[in-house]
Fold these 2 entries.
Entry 1:
Amino acid sequence: MKLYVNNQYQIISIDIEPTSYHEVFTLDGTKEEMFGNWCDTCIQGYKYEPQCEFLFNEDGSNARDEKTGELLYKLDEEGNKIPAGYALYPFIDYQTLTLIQKQYEDSRKQIQALNAQIEYLSMMSGYEMEV
Amino acid sequence: MGKIWMPGGGGGTDLDVITAGAGDVLSGKVIVDKDGNPLPGTLTLSGNASDSQVLAGSTYYSTDPKSKRTGTMPNYGKTPTQINNIRINNNRFEVAVAAGYHGEYWANNGYEFMSFDQVANAIGLTAAKLKKGEVVCGRTGTFEGYVPTATDLYLRGNNKAGFTSTNSASAVSFESGGIKIYRAGPELKSANQVNFTPYNYLNIEVYYESYVNTIGNSKTNFKMRSTLWDGTTTISTGISSNITEGKSVTFSIPVSTLSLTRIVHIRIYVQYDALEDNNQWVTYTTVSWNGYVYRIWLS
């Protein structure tokens, strides 16, 4: 599976190369394995983003800059952040995504019901209809 | 019997009293034998000791019979001495004692000692590593155990979230110091609901011992991979940087947009890249592993 992301590492397309993108990641596993039954709109609410090693306080909280409040990261000997892999996570509120998914599934059900109705009516009337 | 005629003198001297032979006379010197014949000496001193090899204060002759020498080797035979240095080298503990003579003091053995500080420093013993109140090598422990904070879901045996596993007991066992993983890709399920709303990250610390998979060739890029899901839908996935056998790694899963309270399921696998027979690189993402989960917490 290929994930195409923009410069915010937001997923903008899966497997189909968009006209412009920032980076493409090739991941093992199918779309279903990675995202279950999420619709494309929900998937576009996810980021696939490089992560860096955090600095933690003794209590386990993230260490932050006292003035700016920004997260602090571990640095290597040259003062660079230390890569810590990747994260695939929703950047849109998860409940919003679940609502979008619910609407998507409801509309799919409606379409299926309508298709079934059309098929039934066409069968009863003897007409063949393109569904 | 030989006689030596002493001109102007009285009678001859009796040489029968001579007992020295050539070996008794220093090489380069000449005496006469019992017959009055010259007898060159052959005796030489062939000692090879140096001053530093003879105890301080003791004297000896080396090669010059007219030069009595005095040793300089320090004598610790009767004095316990503190060792000079300690190091861990070649997978062993090595100590350096002062040069000199050691012995006779303690059951005919040398007697050296290390101070408590030397021992403690050498083995990295600190108060923080010692159980509170225990005294070892003069250091009083201050460690009170792993005390979970409010944000810990699991910390070295403290199972605040009530994690259980859907794996078999032999594959995932909850031990006093961590969750032991044996040939498994564990799935941990919390008994309690977890409120993610105030937090940005779910962090996981694991000790990676080894992987369990034989598929693929030229395996490389080993990483820990963890998926957070709610029982039906994958919510977030975190993938660590490359991992090394026998080392711990901490990685984080962003949860900042999860304004929800749920029973959580966490799956933790190893992933790696391997070369297939058709020369294609493939990433295997759900590889079982051996090791421990030490901590799961929100931040």
Entry 2:
Amino acid sequence: MATTETAAPESLNGKRTEQLETVVVRFCGDSGDGMQLAGTQFTNASAVFGNDVSTLPDFPAEIRAPAGSLAGVSGFQLCFSAHDIYTPGDTVDTLVAMNPAALKTNLSDLKRGGTLILNEDAFDRSNLSKAGYATNPLEDNSSLAGYRVHKVPMTRLTRDAVEGLGLSQREADRCRNFFALGLVYWLYERDSKPTLQWVKDKFGKNPAVAEANVRALNGGYNYGFSTESFTVHYQVPPAKLAPGKYRKITGNEALAYGLATVAKLSGTRVIYSGYPITPASDILHELSKLKHFGVVTFQAEDEIAAMSATVGAAFGGNLAVTASSGPGICLKGEAMGLGMITELPMIIVDVQRGGPSTGLPTKTEQSDLLLAMFGRNGESPLPILAAATPSDCFDLIQEAMRIAVDFMCPVIFLSDGYIANGAEPWQIPKVSDLKPVVVKHPSERNSAEHFLPYKRDERYVRPWALIGTKGLEHRVGGLEKADVTGNVEYSPTNHQHMTDIRFLKIAGIADYIPEQTVEGPESGELLVVSWGGTYGSVRTAVRQVQSEGKSVAHCHLRYMNPFPRNLGEILKNYEKVLVPELNRGQLRFLLRNDFLIDAKGLNKIQGKPFLVSEVAEAIRTFLENGSI
Amino acid sequence: MSVELPQLTAKDFASDQEIRWCPRCGDYSILAQMKKVLPTLGIPKEKFVFVSGIGCSSRFPYYMDTYGVHGIHGRAPAIATGVKLAKPDMQVWVITGDGDALSIGGNHFLHCIRRNLDVKVILFNNQIYGLTKGQYSPTSPVGARTKSTPYGSVDRPINPLCVAIGAEATFAARAVDVDIKHLTMVLERAAHHKGTAFVEVYQDCNVFNSGAFNYASKKEEKDDNVVYLEHGKPLIFGKNRNRGIRINEMSRPEIVELGGDIREDDLLFHDEKAPEPSLAFLLARMRYPEFPEPLGVFRDVQRPTYDEGVMSQLEAAVAKQGSGNLDELYNDGDTWIVQ
């Protein structure tokens, strides 16, 4: 990250203050060390202060891998800035490592000259050996050369801070994360107030634990202030974001809030059926707290049941939603087909993670696009939307429901682990500015004798009759049906007709969604096409290269099927097309197929988001050599 | 002012679709009894919904002029859960078969029952896969020779009532397709039950497994092979009603001859309201030919239903927090203002 040093006014205790534009901090330790919590609190404090923030939680799939092991390291990275940012940062300015394993697995991301804060007490023989260190890196002269190293006896200092509160040693040690947090608060002049309030709310019923955390936090802060180890601290002024009121939000929270909004504004109940799966479960957790908005949550016995109940709830007239990740979406496939052929409105959320099979449950990937496109038997096209950022989930999930209801079809919504768990500031909308989803059910028969469930309008959309309505009794099902009547019908021409109509209905959604826009020149040498959660990295990278005077534009897709109607035109305006994706080239496959263009790919499948530098470098190389 | 409901008849429940079951299939009788029972319930036609899975029995919804979903294999209870949660005022019937409910859909069957969702589950048990033309099913007996078991099945069959009662079904019953009066009574009882009402119907697949239930359906045989359960009455059976079921010193059921030393009072008395499912389970374990198979209502108890629980939580949330306020939701927690 670019950092600038400005004037260094004398501050308290004779320590210098430097001004920085953007800082990346990473907390890492054992999965039981409370690193996710420390990171979340730091994010809150920075957001409330007015910085732009972007976060990257990175934790192991095991809840508690063996203590001190390399596999058990959990990290939380955040970037906070005085201007608008789109990624959690490529390299780390300040690394907090709570044990040798955390140091070993994270040191390579710390930039040269960066600040390294270590819990010295954890570097004992046992931990060193678990981390595979033959010698103590704190004691040789070479391992940590080039970094500003602060060896802090955090365990001892935390125990001292909480002494007299009657806590067990184990309980006392659980406050170490707040000691570390307090120290970094001092380092970056963060206000502790939001965190102190959080402690009060969280541990109100357990005053000793609350007090211990407060003491640990203050202890860390005062350590930075008092000791000579730290001679300088830093300020990152508030960012100049668009005026308005903000809060921090993760993708899964935004998605849940979007669904509560749909329920409230439409006046129709949202029913969310799900089965626990990483990284989608938080949607269920959030929604289960929002019953008073008219949200029903159903924790089903399995993924298939969650999807089947979603079809049933849609037939029952509710706004039905299910969410899962790749393995669960595979299980849902058959019932998604039932939703497709019965032409009922519903949303299927896929919070993508590393695959195949169980894959990398806690890591991000974009490898379910083709599953969403083609992962059902028969000709079964469905609209697909993909959120670009955490806060985008709020708007786009409402749009997904609007499309589902307006076109009577299941809609697939793609998120990913990075968006789902990542946080960013969200400009709080005015409720009056939001567009409600409009639900309409017929009250009368559409023909003299019978209700005709598959009599369509000019967009091929069939009516959504609410069960329980007198005179509209009808049956839907998975067998091929005759158009108009919906009766079971196997004739060859009817099947062709119905297949075509179902396709045309979905394809016609292109006339309804907005046209695609491009950032940068309207024509030129290179167009970078991205989709989903890579938005931030790709946008930042393209801007960097643009600022170098290169002819490059960025096109970020949120509507994956059908594509925006002008996408083909856009692609023709550039000599080359580069598609960076966290997969082997799934969007590229679709673009090449639909538009017969020789798009090239930048493909990363490491369970991690793109670094800005990786994308920028690929763009430069591609512009120079025509290949990457 | 009260509104008189028009008196519905069986004909009102018949759809205009041609029925495509094989001639003399047991399904016809179940369909006919269902159409007889529904008009007696005092519920408007549009308040019924039939949900099915896949298999011969699962074509049922197409033949009823009510709301209906012909679902996918095994998933009818899960689809029905969605329907019921979305529209709790509907009376929901699940139509399923032995393969549908107990093989591919075993999980949903189990969980629907243990949640006590207010749906009626009618399982057409013909001990065979009919629609796929004759493979053995999870209820086929050991040794069954079918298309997929030319040397006889080596699978131990599952007992549908034991599964249902094991999952603590609040209502569990068994009937036979051609025993029309009894079947009607059982369907009526199921219709009036609040909670999951499970009914196993012995249904003859006259094409692939003809006569599998002759012992329980043929006039000349059945009196000795079945025992009709009546709440509060002793278990007596036999052409001359001279045999009964007694619980012996080993707490096991045994067949005894009435007369002599043994009087009716010594017999096992049926208690469908017993809070513990043990008696119902014991009865479900009585199988032909060792025992006469019980027909009728094994268990009928009341417990809160899942859908009621879900809805009352919604109401409680609104009562406690008020109808959700989006502004409050968005502004909850730490916020800051950018000028």
